[in-house]
Amino acid sequence: MRFTKMEGLGNDYIYINCMEGEPPDLPALAVQLSDRHFGVGGDGIICLKPGRIGDFSMEMYNADGSRGAMCGNGIRCLAKYVYDRRLTRKTCLTIDTDAGPKGVELSVSGGTADRVTVDMGEGLLFPSVVLEAGGESFSVWQVSMGNPHAVIFCPAPEQVDLERLGPVLEHHPELRERSNVEFAAAEGRNRLTVRVWERGSGITLACGTGACACFAAARRAGLCGERAEICLPGGVLELEAREKRIFMTGPARTVFEGEIEL
Fold this sequence. Notes:
The protein is 17% helix and 48% strand. It has 262 residues and is an alpha+beta fold.
């Protein structure tokens, strides 16, 4: 089976072209391939499939085999994948996800896509909760970007023991559902620093939906304006609010291609 390793701000996935068929047991395959010692290594797999409503469909599985509804970094890379392989010549696409169809716009340089803007939709905020986890108390903003997020504002995200707190908060019974977890700090009106615990994958260098969830919560809290840079360990995403919708712009890169026996 041929595959392509791609990344957006270090949020890396293994891409499989399933336009004319797919390998068996995709959840198990995600676990096998994502292993960074015995597999290809990645935060999960993303399968390219024919569009249902849009031009193409994206089906993703986290490193633990669980199904993911949406991935902002992943969809940017998928858009690059289809353009660079000449599966389309369109620079404005609609890609179906489990969180609904998403519009993407590609920036092309030298015949390949290098940056992609995604219409991430509206960040839906639910009542915040105060909960206990790991012997500490946290005020948590619950946000849906098509997948669930728990956003916690704090002075210094880089000092948070994310490896310890992440799994406890991900599965916390007082949250609406099993959640991605973000610790965020506002640094002025146009800049947020964010660290992410991604459900099903653990600590990741970036998370597109997580960046959007933090942006939505920060705007509601009055911590930032209509535009912001979201600074993640893997790099920077540019976010813009247009009425109720959030648009995210960032890079997409092919790391390597390969073939593996199943």
